[in-house]
# Entry
Amino acid sequence: MGDWPRSSAAVTVEWLDAVMHRNEVLSEARVTSVTASTLGMGVGVMAEVSRLTIAYDKPEDGAPGTIISKFPTTDPANLGIARSLYFYPREVAFYTKLAQYSPVRTPRLFHAELDMADHSFVLLLEDIRNAVLGDQVAGLTPAQADAAVTAIGRLHGAWWGKVDSGDMDTLFDFSNPHYGAAVQSAYQDFLAPAFDNFPDCYSSYTRQTAEQLGAVAARVILEQSSGARSFLHGDYRADNLLFGPAFGADGIAAIDWQVSGRGGPLYDVAYLLCNSLPTSDRHQSEKALLRRYHSTLTQMGVTGFSFDDCWDAYRLAVLCGLFVAIFGTGGMDLGNQRGREMAHVMARRIDAAVSELKVGDLLPG
# Structure
């Protein structure tokens, strides 16, 4: 195991000062105190996320007064999911290899450690302030949804067709058969508890589709991850988006890259629209937002991918949205009341999309 603290409470002045100087965050000032506080409700379900408040012996330009720390979750069930699906190596890989090239604003990385033996890790990240955090339960506003779709289109367009060569072919791949098998196994375990825990969230059509999906989940993941490929965020939803005028043309920053990797990019779009928009808003703007996304891809130089291709890929990605709905309502420790509200809203919205778009028709025979 690596020599670093295993929780925010274990972060010492000596360790923090050493890594901040080693990574050239500081040059002259020395850390004199550090205080950890857990971030707000509903945050950190799959990781321990805290704000570290730092004091120094002297002023220094650029010395952060606060930073964000991330460590593995202490909940055994969630930790098991995170390890089996490689959440922590995926996020560390993003911040250490790709974040500096991302067309979407992300927090600055100050320090990263990872032990592949047990997936213990630590990330020290910029604490982005003076921004509006999206609200998963309330849902995105139309302007926020438009900005989010445009931003993810730019991210996908930047790496469209480029993720299976060079240094990127070492990044996590959603088409890996071991990943598909792990998702299918966990999904089957969580299916019945999801229906028991949230009986009002799933229509008869969605229940039938979800049950049939259990036997072919790995095949569906492979199909969705093949064809047009790019780098995707993987958990692209309101609670992981920050909005503000300082974030460039899109006015948006994306956090929490634990589920990122190479695969079918329309998953990000379907996950966003079916999770983070109230169902009535999705009804009204779904096709328009998809056209905005497709137009952004075209502007980024993507060719050979028609809007009909985009719509077909979107429907298949909506089917894959059942994975996170069943995980969230059937097996994860949701942390607190807001986490439970978020899971309830997510399941109801995904249920509506699955039923309306008849994505059960896409299940392999």
